[in-house]
């Protein structure tokens, strides 16, 4: 079905799409609709242009087409066919060119004998200053300014008129009011901000300086965060995006962002007792939040939300909607979505979920035993569930290092762009696995398992102590993601096997349990694994959670989320050099909340890197 048929436009003429800026308008090249009750529509209904700017309007006939011979529509500007130099001209094909001067008169593009019309406003920067208002988030401002078609608007902001921070640019195809959400500001602080409008010819217009004072945050909501720099280099720029889980009931904010001094600069208030799953930036500048019932109970909200920086919900997927989509393509229904969502280049989301089944006819497992296992769902926001995978269909049910009740307990998904497959961290299997996804065309078979008893072999003397145990958050740290490539993860070290006798860490006469961050080089052909580098975090031992990242400056950042030895009850995030003996560069400590994930991101906006000096208003270190 063509676009015109979908819109109820029945015609016998040819049409093509002409792109103007970022929006494609359907343009009729020759009209031949024969219905006597047909009408002609012009789109869009309004546009803002600078003098002499051209804009392609869309012209389409709506109604039943019975015979050819309908006359070609006559396009007018202020009632004059084809327009005039003082009001602008328009061609029969709908290409409008604005007049050379701004006269202040009303300009209307119409169709002779038809009611459909479009308003043209000529842009006058001197009379269109911006305005700034508060949002529901006291740390986020809403900046609105008028811009012409095919322009873009971004806002620079900071503690004084030197600014130093910037939002992403928002493009406008038809022109008009553009609203930019400005986030990344501390509480109860006055900021200066200024919109920059970039025209289609590359020139820029600066708005007048605006000021905005952020609201305050109640003391009982503020996370208890301290930071320290150690002088072993300069921390990699950016901010910390934290997914915090309260250790006890209270009102502490959970999904938050801070500067590297630990100041709160953004948050999302769940306004419920539910916990946040990891929060992730989306390519469009929004955030993806996984809301999980407290303690993974059956009570509470369990859904995935796409929010803007002010906290407005743009899109949400509930558990019921997920199961409705699953019913069309699979035989199972899930009980919970949890721990992670992977964002694919094509806009799909890979959801991680679990469900429970009773086991029968499996040697070594008593009949009726309930096992909880994981599932993956490829969710197309336009078409719902399009692919599904279940651990029960592909794993040996008797491989259960942590028992049967919570059999797999997966915690992270990543996409392998080279081969279109998925890599899944399965904490309770002590395995990281690669799944045959092939961008939705794969059969779900397991291509390999990484860990003790898995597909790969380590050099002599390194197994079993160097394998992964209870691991979290694998990341690919090489340019390629298949063949021979490098994989890094946070190795919690639960029940780490310490020697060839398989003695478990922490046992009498055996070394203590510890966490580490290894970089493995994996050879998928030879099925060999080599440890290229490792940060042995001993004496730190994180019983759960955590992550590790390679930062742009080459340092490593590690989230020791649930330390049991050095400072129990405190989450510690460290930036250290990637050297043979890592040196500590920067550290954050978080009290009363478990930092399930702590991630250095460049800023709250795609394509923008915020320097520490601009965030903190400190002079950069020499």
Tell me, briefly, the overall form: globular
Low-confidence stretches: 1-36
Q: Can you count the beta strands? A: 47
Structural domain tally? 3
- How many helices? The count is 3
**Separation of termini?**
64 Å
The top level CATH class name of the largest domain: Mainly Beta
Major β-sheet annotation: 6 strands, antiparallel
Class by SSE composition: mainly beta
From the coordinates shown, what is the CATH architecture of the largest domain? 7 Propeller
Radius of gyration, in angstroms, nearest whole number: 29 Å
Can you tell me about this structure?
This protein is 3% helix and 43% strand. With 622 residues, the chain is mainly β. The protein has three domains: 119 residues, no CATH class; 89 residues, Immunoglobulins (Immunoglobulin-like, Sandwich); 398 residues, 7 Propeller (Methylamine Dehydrogenase, Chain H). The chain is globular.
Which SSEs are present, and which pair or pack?
Layout: H1 3-6, E1 15-20, E2 23-28, E3 39-43, E4 46-49, E5 54-56, E6 58-62, E7 75-77, E8 80-81, E9 83-84, E10 88-90, E11 95-97, E12 107-111, E13 117-122, E14 131-134, E15 141-147, E16 151-158, E17 165-166, E18 170-172, E19 176-182, E20 190-198, E21 204-206, E22 210-213, E23 224-229, E24 239-246, E25 255-258, E26 264-267, E27 275-281, E28 287-292, E29 303-307, E30 313-318, H2 319-326, E31 336-343, E32 349-359, E33 369-380, E34 384-390, E35 410-416, E36 421-426, E37 431-435, E38 446-450, E39 472-476, E40 484-490, E41 516-523, E42 528-536, E43 547-550, E44 556-560, E45 570-576, E46 584-591, E47 593-601, H3 612-616
Parallel strand pairs: 4-13
Antiparallel strand pairs: 1-2, 3-6, 5-11, 7-8, 7-12, 9-10, 10-11, 12-13, 14-15, 15-19, 16-17, 16-18, 16-20, 20-21, 20-22, 23-46, 24-25, 24-47, 25-26, 27-28, 28-29, 29-30, 31-32, 32-33, 33-34, 35-36, 36-37, 37-38, 39-40, 40-41, 41-42, 43-44, 44-45, 45-46
